[in-house]
Amino acid sequence: MRFLNTATLLAALFIACVSAAQTTAITGATVHTAGPAGKIENATIVIRDGNVAAIGTGVAVPAGSTEIKADGKIVTPGLITPFGQIGLVEVNAVEGTVDYVQRGDQFSASFDPGDAYNPRSTLIATNRIEGITHAVIAPEGQEADEFGNQSRVFSGLASVVQLSDENYIVRRGTAFVANLGETGGTLAGGSRAAALMVLRTALDDARDYARNVQAYEQGNRRKYSLSRNDIRALQELLDGSKPLLVKVHRASDISTAIRLADEYEFNLIVMGGAEAWMVADELAAADASVILDTLANLPNSFEQLNARLDAAAILARAGVRFAIGGDGASQNHNARNITQAAGIAVANGLSWDDALKALTLAPAEMYGVADRIGSLEAGKRADLVIWNEDPLELTSYPEQVFIGGEAVPMESRQTLLRDRYLDRSSGKPPAFR
Amino acid sequence: MKRTTILAGAICAALTGCDRTGDANGEAGNEAAETPAAYSSRYQPLPSKATLLTGATILTGTGERLDGADILVRDGKVVEIGNELAAEDVEVVDAAGMWITPGIIDVHSHLGVYPSPGVMAHADGNEISAPNTAEVWAEHSVWPQDPGFVTALAGGITTLQILPGSANLFGGRSVTVKNVPGRSVQDMKFPGAPYGLKMACGENPKRVYGEGKGAAPSTRMGNVAGYRKAWIAAEDYRQKREKADDGDGEAPARDLQLETLVGVLEGEILVHNHCYRADEMAVMIDVAREFGYEISAFHHAVEAYKIPDLLAENDICAAVWADWWGFKMEAFDGIRENAAIVADSGACAIVHSDDQRGIQRLNQEAAKIVGAAARVDIDIPPEKAIQWITSNPARALGIADSVGTLESGKMADIAVWDGSPFSVYSRVERVYIDGALLFDRDDPAVNPVTDFSLGTAAMTGGAK
To answer: How distant is the Cα of A7 from the closest Cα of chain B, in angstroms?
Structure first.
């Protein structure tokens, strides 16, 4: 059959050979670690118990291990899609499959859509076989429905998941998500300033709670602007253990968010950031992170008038930590397109190494999971991809993806559809193929 | 494709009633009358210099690739392509290491009718007031100051079809434009290009009317009944007009809606049919058969790979995205190999954008399909893949006689790339339209800036 190519056969072989209990060694590849070791030529990666046990040139292949020869191939860490709704949606226009939208007072800072995550979603295999091993899943603020219900300024909590069938939650509630700018203003009643007021009031309430827990719990404290669950959850923002992810584009709105983060001493992630390049130095000084839409170069709205394609290069020069993936065409169903989004950033001045970092280590760092994922280092999880060629190039593809040291099946609903309609040899209708 | 390209001028000469259908889109009006016909193209090529681009890899759009080749352009036309061409009085551009392709053509755009900024005040692409609005013309909505035209130019786009949206069974007439700055749409209209009629299958019309307004259509069978009723009315109108022309009875009152539909039945207006599912495309082919019209292209044909034989038999192009899927039910079966399977089966494949970002990189969208196809041993070389975004859309738009390939005598609409257009790292260096240099990455002073973009990053960095 002409459509069973070598990669497919290799995949079958991997799955037959690799199991978690064994030691596996991948040899001969050029490994881009995204970590301190940088690029390692002709590397050996030893995988044991789901982790990278050793990595480097001249590392011995342990006796009894399964060796996977990857001469001439490129290996990278598994890619992380830094914001989206994988596993929280099947078909956007089919309401029953959408679990990321929430409207009403009960859904605010502590709303956690991770409870709805479906590890068997068709989006998962489709993106996994293209090199995406991890996803950040998050709620989305939505404007009013036909009954006037709308989302809050706080959307809820984001989580990091790995795109495996089991043990998929890497970190639950890893960041708070909120809306400022045009969307935030709409959700707060019209003005950007109103959205900011909502956040300030909530944070003041959360501070007050921290100082008066007992009184509040006994009913001897004033009513807060958010529910008890929300106020308690926000303690982790104020103590610095979880960042606030703010969806915002306009340079002045980003500066406002930076001031708020400084005032309440929380960590800030700017999502979207069409005009982030204009305040790159401020972002760097505040140690804030950005999830960048590298395809933005049109004034989609008045808060994106100065979007430009070389924004990633400008942020990199200023020393701002950023992940790539804020573009709608490289999220969710097509999270796999973050490689293209990164390649476009490289075409517009970003270094290749910085681009890879923006797909791996940078998002791991901003979500507080870099101790386990995001780079290939001894002791970290063995989440990695063997590519036939340059992973950012449009015609390249993964020959095998590993999550936690296990080779994942290189198959999706889309490859099944493809193969069914390519195979016309039987003469029978597609339903019998 | 059975349909040959006919300039509207020729149509006017050959057919009666052209004045009534308002198809004065061509050159004939300009030549014949002192005052141009209403709504006609007022496009004038920008000043150009005779230019010789040398030493490039040229993908001609005819399926050929020439390495180390030259292309000579004079008076807005391609004069010659070959090796070591000699010419006098020309500007010589060393294009060694560069790739040259025909200007990229997007068969499906909403630039100008859904422009940036995407505010409600600008949303002029869908006349959501009745399921049949064949009477509206997209050109009457086009805002030429859309900054998206300029960013598309930086992606090599020289010609695009601007369509009404897909809320309606019959959305209205499309307009094909040259991607040049104009003060009004007439300055951009592609001379002689036929009009298109936007039709839509599936979820959108039944959602907008059935679900949204409690009106017909509310089902796919309601959609089909809606098309057939309209075509029956058009047949009747056409007969009455023909009789009147033969002196038998009075001519019917002008009806804008029916004029457009009759334009389709008479072969002057090309059908561009938004249709995702294979089974629906098969039904639409029967509707066309019942009323004797042709479908130029199915747009967003997410399931074209399930019926490439039907498309080939009926000479219908499939205009598709590389990989959009799952945003609605009828897009659930999208696969990246779609266009490649269509092309590999001998049918006409087109990669389209439907998007102000996608139109900036149709070459990259094509490249993703090439990469996916290679995984199942379908080999699409660059000289073939380029046809998905040049000669095939030109064919679907009825303008293949003048653009879509680099051949002697054709309009010199040319994109010059700093590497293979199918690499993510390549960018457009230069764009020529009718031989005039409209975009030069190395010289921002050359590049157009829309009124809206004055004072923003687009003046210096946005289009770079």
So the answer is: 8
